[in-house]
Amino acid sequence: AKAAGKNCxxxxxxxxxxxxxxRAQLAADLPTALEEEQFRVVYQPVAGxxxxxxxxxxxxxxxxxxxxxxxxxxxxxxxAEADGxxxxxxxxxxxxxxxxxxxLLVDDRDLKLGxxxxxxxxxxxxxxxxxxxxxxxxxxxxHRLMIEVTESIMLDAEDRLQSDLATLRDMGCIISLDDFxxxxxSLAYLARLPVDVLKMDREFIxxxxxxxxxxxxxxxxxxxxxTLGMDVVAEGVETAGQLHALRDMECRYVQGxxxxxxxAIEDLxxxxxxxxxx
Length: 278
Ligand code: C2E
Ligand code: CA
Ligand code: CA
Ligand code: CA
Hints:
This is PAS domain S-box-containing protein/diguanylate cyclase (GGDEF)-like protein. Helix content is 46%, strand content 19%. It has eleven helices and nine strands. Helix 3 (86-104) runs parallel beside helix 5. The chain is α/β, with parallel strands linked by helices. It has an eight-stranded mixed beta barrel, surrounded by four helices. The longest helix is centred in the first third of the chain and has 24 residues, at 12-35. Bound molecules: ligand C2E and calcium ion (CA) (3 copies).
């Protein structure tokens, strides 16, 4: 019999079992991971389409699991949300990212810092004070911070959540709607939410070169954003062709592997210098 590799198990049952095993292990290890600070934050550049200047950095969390190696956020954020650990994790990310960013602010580029937040943190009622504390301790001015929320906030009927977002906005923070176009998009909500920036999901960017209908949709979202007074960021830009197509649509901001992969804070000064001599 052929030896089945780790990722090549023979029966569906076994596949499910090993997936559950990993999930269960990650869930069980999360509290220790927080105590021992097994997390790290990497930063991906957001650039202007016209001149490719770096305008912002998005903070993305990673878990360096002692046995399983680097675990991506898509695997553990949901687990952290399920057992209430998302709030302490998010507090840690906010503090780490603002502290890292404060170190970069010494030169006077007008960079923004994007931090992803969970709707659970909003529901817990302490997002605005946690953001305020991280800003105060790091000295990062509020207008430099972009809070990225997903459309799942729209599923929450409570207006309180939206008023908390409005509080953050009143503090001067920028609010962006992440993964726009994936999931539960609703134009009615879009007009109502206190949102400054639309981040268009990378699913839509992937085939704009080959799919005219997809491209028309992207162009329409860019126009919609402009009409509503929002900036639009196209996510997941991987090819020069996609970048050109987006430029033709007068999209102004892009993010993706073409411009830069997420990287350690230590690598940013050299990257910024090489990519974008100020
Ligand atoms: P997101 O906010 O949509 O972040 C963008 C994701 O797309 C990142 O995945 C990034 O590495 C990936 N990406 C960027 N450019 C490209 C590209 O050109 N091609 C492709 N294929 N992918 C690209 P990542 O880092 O694995 O993060 C996944 C998601 O986890 C994020 O999606 C975000 O929703 C969530 N997340 C990350 N960090 C945090 C955090 O600190 N707190 C919370 N609540 N969620 C986080
Ligand atoms: Ca994001
Ligand atoms: Ca996104
Ligand atoms: Ca996302």
